[in-house]
């Protein structure tokens, strides 16, 4: 099996276009098309559905997409192990962290721990919007993820971490007349600065507004924490963030935050892995390190609770 064809197949599925994939891979479009035809001939099944709008993976193609990621990771680990036999644990491990969540606070401690104990392991950390982390774990793109939700999703295992408390965040003057926790009624008419619609945070906030009988007004969709901080200081609107993230943002910008009650706004964080994941020494070492850092995070991080409050959204 030609692993270069597998890598090209992954790129075609990711971008949904043979022409665009050829451009990204710096190969001629006819040559890439021939590779895809050869791959389908090798497996004896159609792997791609072709249409004027682009290409998508067939059911058989989705299965190959998952295995292709695993095969390419194993090939990379084999090459690295042969090149550096002195490193007992080596390889690449991909992790997802829910953006704008307490999970992002795991990145630096985890990098330091892995760097110190397993210098032969290279971490790939994804903490940006635009992707569904559980789908990436299911497809084998990620080997593990700390994300919102508890499942269940067939084929995935969710290990509950904690319930994350969310706060109202805004310019300091926004809270001038407040001397205690806020209600949704207090902020229902404010302009909101939130991530795009496909994010858990955005969906949960809009759901809370609607359940309370209000119509949310999103003034801007922002997916950069630094841009969000600057927009809050400028008074463009308010946002809803976990206490830990709000605290980090306050160290950089003149903002403030306050808890929400009636109802409390919380969201469950979980560690997600594939049920039938193929473990490697590197992924096992990183998973153990991640679990240790999660335990440490629970102890040091405000706004994380072991149980969901009775009244919650």
TrEMBL record:
<dbReference type="Pfam" id="PF03466">
    <property type="entry name" value="LysR_substrate"/>
</dbReference>
<dbReference type="InterPro" id="IPR036388">
    <property type="entry name" value="WH-like_DNA-bd_sf"/>
</dbReference>
<dbReference type="GO" id="GO:2000142">
    <property type="term" value="P:regulation of DNA-templated transcription initiation"/>
</dbReference>
<keyword id="KW-0804">Transcription</keyword>
<dbReference type="InterPro" id="IPR000847">
    <property type="entry name" value="LysR_HTH_N"/>
</dbReference>
<keyword id="KW-0805">Transcription regulation</keyword>
<dbReference type="GO" id="GO:0003677">
    <property type="term" value="F:DNA binding"/>
</dbReference>
<protein>
    <submittedName>
        <fullName>LysR family transcriptional regulator</fullName>
    </submittedName>
</protein>
<dbReference type="InterPro" id="IPR036390">
    <property type="entry name" value="WH_DNA-bd_sf"/>
</dbReference>
<keyword id="KW-0238">DNA-binding</keyword>
<dbReference type="Pfam" id="PF00126">
    <property type="entry name" value="HTH_1"/>
</dbReference>
<feature type="domain" description="HTH lysR-type">
    <location>
        <begin position="1"/>
        <end position="58"/>
    </location>
</feature>
<keyword id="KW-0010">Activator</keyword>
<comment type="similarity">
    <text>Belongs to the LysR transcriptional regulatory family.</text>
</comment>
<dbReference type="InterPro" id="IPR005119">
    <property type="entry name" value="LysR_subst-bd"/>
</dbReference>
<dbReference type="GO" id="GO:0003700">
    <property type="term" value="F:DNA-binding transcription factor activity"/>
</dbReference>
């Amino acid at each position: 099996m030609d692993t270069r064809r597998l890598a090209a197949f992954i790129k075609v599925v990711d971008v949904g276009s043979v022409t665009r994939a050829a451009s990204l891979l710096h190969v001629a479009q006819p040559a890439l098309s021939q590779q895809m035809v050869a791959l389908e001939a090798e497996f004896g099944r159609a792997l791609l559905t072709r249409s004027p709008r682009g290409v998508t993976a067939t059911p058989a193609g989705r299965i190959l997409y998952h295995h292709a990621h695993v095969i390419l990771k194993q090939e990379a680990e084999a090459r690295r192990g042969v090149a550096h036999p002195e490193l007992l644990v080596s390889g690449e491990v991909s992790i997802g962290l829910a953006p704008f969540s307490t999970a992002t606070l795991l990145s630096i401690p985890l990098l330091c721990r892995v760097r110190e104990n397993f210098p032969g392991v290279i971490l790939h950390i994804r903490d940006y919007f635009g992707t569904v982390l559980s789908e990436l774990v299911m497809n084998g793109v990620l080997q593990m993820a700390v994300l919102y939700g508890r499942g269940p999703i067939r084929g995935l295992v969710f290990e509950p971490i904690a319930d994350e408390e969310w706060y109202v965040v805004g310019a300091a003057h926004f809270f001038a007349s407040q001397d205690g926790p806020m209600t949704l009624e207090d902020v229902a008419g404010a302009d909101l600065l939130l991530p795009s619609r496909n994010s858990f945070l955005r969906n949960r906030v809009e759901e809370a507004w609607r359940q309370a009988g209000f119509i949310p007004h999103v003034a801007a969709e922002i997916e950069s924490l630094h841009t969000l901080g600057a927009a809050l200081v400028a008074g463009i609107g308010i946002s809803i963030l976990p206490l830990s993230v709000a605290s980090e943002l306050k160290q950089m910008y003149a903002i403030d935050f306050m808890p929400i009650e009636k109802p409390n706004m919380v969201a469950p964080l979980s560690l997600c892995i594939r049920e039938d994941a193929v473990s490697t020494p590197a992924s096992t070492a990183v998973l153990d390190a991640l679990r240790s850092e999660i335990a440490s995070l629970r102890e040091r991080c405000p706004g994380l609770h072991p149980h969901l409050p009775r009244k919650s959204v």
